[in-house]
């Protein structure tokens, strides 16, 4: 913003992930970039299978975006290897994760943040419009994620508790079709990750905190687990 730039581009340490900031200072994550890429590639007739491959943590807005445009939205488990496997199996050429790990298989067999950034610049140059104008085509639902540190990070420990099952059922009912809750074991840390998504940010924050507190309560009731 201070430089009056059209956009900002940031990579992770090995540059296989990219996140951008538009001219208004808004962060546009991997889901938004997938939507922009899908729309452009579909218009060019280059989106194989008319499909976008993402993970089950991708924003519900991306699924809605694809549905509105008659595109297939294929989800996998979290992890770029799962996305790549689905792309290879189905012969698709666009996929990625919300974290900015984007795969353009026509140009590279794996995620490449710098390639994705160049592809975005190409689209912006051709469209002759600001990034914010392209990004707003996809409605992004509020998502709240909480990492809960527990002694035994397995979902089975909590799913065995009736009050956990009741709480998850209540949350799903409260969110309805416009929201969801995902509770999963982290693949890299000794934590259980809670993700709640819906149209109302305040509601989503409250429900995520309630689930996290319940997980901590159930975990404290099992002091013999290490």
Automatic annotation (TrEMBL):
Top-level class of the enzyme under EC nomenclature: isomerase
UniProt keyword Metal-binding, yes or no: yes
GO biological process, one term: peptidoglycan biosynthetic process
Ranges of residues in domain Alpha-D-phosphohexomutase alpha/beta/alpha: 29-141
GO MF, one example: metal ion binding
Cofactor: Mg(2+)
InterPro entries per record: A-D-PHexomutase_a/b/a-I/II/III, A-D-PHexomutase_a/b/a-III, A-D-PHexomutase_C, A-D-PHexomutase_C_sf, Phosphoglucosamine_mutase
Domain Alpha-D-phosphohexomutase C-terminal: 147-213
GO cellular component, one term: cytosol
UniProt-listed Gene3D superfamilies: Alpha-D-Glucose-1,6-Bisphosphate, subunit A, domain 3, Alpha-D-phosphohexomutase, C-terminal domain
UniProt KW keywords: Isomerase, Magnesium, Metal-binding, Phosphoprotein
EC number assigned by the record: 5.4.2.10
Keyword Phosphoprotein part of the UniProt annotation: yes
Pfam families per the UniProt record, alphabetical: PGM_PMM_III, PGM_PMM_IV
Full protein name: Phosphoglucosamine mutase
């Amino acid at each position: 913003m201070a430089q009056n730039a059209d956009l900002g581009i940031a990579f992770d340490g090995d540059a296989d992930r990219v996140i951008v900031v538009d001219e208004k200072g808004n962060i546009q994550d991997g889901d938004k970039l997938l939507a922009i890429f899908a729309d452009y590639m579909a218009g060019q007739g280059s989106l194989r299978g008319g499909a976008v491959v993402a993970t089950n943590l991708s924003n519900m807005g991306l699924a809605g975006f694809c549905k509105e445009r008659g595109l297939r939205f294929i989800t996998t488990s979290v992890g770029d290897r799962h996305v790549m496997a689905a792309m290879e199996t189905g012969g698709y050429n666009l996929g990625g994760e919300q974290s900015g790990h984007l795969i353009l298989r026509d140009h590279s067999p794996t995620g490449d943040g710098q390639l994705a950034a160049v592809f975005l610049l190409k689209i912006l140059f051709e469209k002759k419009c600001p990034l914010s104008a392209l990004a707003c085509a996809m409605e992004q639902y509020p998502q709240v994620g909480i990492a809960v540190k527990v002694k035994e990070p397995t979902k089975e420990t909590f799913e065995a508790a009736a009050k956990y099952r009741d709480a998850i059922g209540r949350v799903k009912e409260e969110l309805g079709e416009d929201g969801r809750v995902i509770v999963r074991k982290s693949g890299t840390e000794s934590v259980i990750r809670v993700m709640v998504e819906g149209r109302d940010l305040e509601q989503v924050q409250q429900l995520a905190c309630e689930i996290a507190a319940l997980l901590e309560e159930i975990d404290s009731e099992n002091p013999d687990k290490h």
